[in-house]
Specification:
This protein is an alpha/beta fold. The protein has 12 helices and 10 strands.
């Protein structure tokens, strides 16, 4: 990945990574601790998943699994599909994306605009063969020479975060960091970044932020995968341990309720002029909560996963929120 601040880069491919680390000035002042957001929503495809897409395509090209002019197939909640389509099409590949049919409409529209072949399936439990993960695997097997990206188990996902995202964060904080907080979907980001940061400073506290309906918080705290409730978030939370997540070095975990992340989303746009999606808002709420458990002046980094405009019909639509029992109003966590 190139330093785009000092030199021209090669199209969208060269624009992935080297994202800014944003000091959330007003939030930090309100909490008395320094909160930083890694601006992954500023990648060319609008999300942190651009890194995973780049890493998986590069690895597949190097191994010969993805020949010139070939086809990439993946099952996704949307952002990995957008990254694979953006980068894959720029590289000359066909891209087939399988998604559950209950995601934000903006994602489907963008995928079609970028040139993906889009297949939607009903949302279902992972054990069901109709799940988007299993469907993508079957579609890839049915198409001669197709490459199934398999982002959950493909270690090129967490590798790229170990090689790029982690070192960028460490450099940007000047080697001074108290805690790293983020959610997990495939486990790629938390797997790669936490492994790198812990190698630099074992004292960095890593906390997993988990939405309702996911079993990872329970797994960290009790060793048992167990979930409760549900969530409006997309692309985070899971009920199994993936190969990428297994690389993570996690000290603690916390659950974040949908109303809490909505409060943070609305607070960020009002006070920081920062428009992020539900996963990014969840991460910042969790980072703020962790920060309040640390001494004044502590430094906490989290991930701003994707652009909030991708959820115009949902988190920014107060009627839609009301239908979910949620209220679009700003708010912050309070000290314990």
């Amino acid at each position: 990945m190139s330093n785009r601040a000092t030199s021209a880069v090669s199209g969208v491919w060269g624009a992935v990574g080297d994202t800014p680390l944003l000091h959330l000035v007003k939030l930090s002042k309100a909490l008395g601790r320094d909160i930083f957001g890694k601006a992954e929503h500023m990648n060319p495809g609008g999300s942190v998943k651009d890194r995973a897409a780049l890493g998986m395509i590069e690895a597949a090209e190097q191994s010969g699994a993805l020949p010139p002019g070939g086809t990439i197939v993946e099952g996704t909640a949307g952002n990995t599909g957008i990254g694979l389509t953006l980068l894959g099409r720029a590289r000359g590949y066909k891209v087939v994306i399988v998604m559950p049919d209950n995601q934000a409409a903006e994602k489907y529209e963008l995928l079609r605009l970028l040139g993906a072949e889009l297949i939607t399936v009903p949302p279902t439990a992972f054990a069901n063969e109709g799940h988007f993960y299993h469907t993508a695997k079957r579609v890839a097997a049915e198409r001669p020479g197709a490459f199934w990206a398999n982002q959950f188990e493909n270690l090129a996902n967490s590798d790229v975060h170990y090689r790029t995202t982690g070192p960028e964060i460490w450099r940007q904080v000047g080697g001074k960091l108290d805690a790293f907080v983020t959610s997990s979907g495939t486990g790629g980001t938390i797997g790669g970044v936490s492994a790198y940061l812990k190698e630099q400073a074992p004292t960095v506290r890593v906390t997993l932020a988990d939405p309702g309906g996911s079993g990872l918080c329970s797994y960290v705290q009790t060793g048992v995968i167990k979930s409760s409730g549900e969530s409006i978030t997309e692309g985070i939370g899971i009920m199994r341990i993936t190969a990428n997540y297994a690389r993570a070095r996690i000290d603690d975990a916390m659950s974040v309720h949908d109303q809490q992340l909505i409060k943070m989303a609305y607070w960020l746009i009002e006070h920081e002029s920062l428009c992020v999606g539900t996963s990014g808002a969840l991460n910042v709420w969790a980072a703020a909560t962790v920060a309040l458990q640390l001494p004044p002046g502590a430094r906490v980094v989290t991930i701003l996963c994707d652009v909030g405009e991708r959820y115009r019909s949902r988190q920014w639509n107060r009627e839609w929120l009301a239908s979910k029992g949620l209220v679009g109003e700003p708010g912050l966590p309070s000290a314990p």
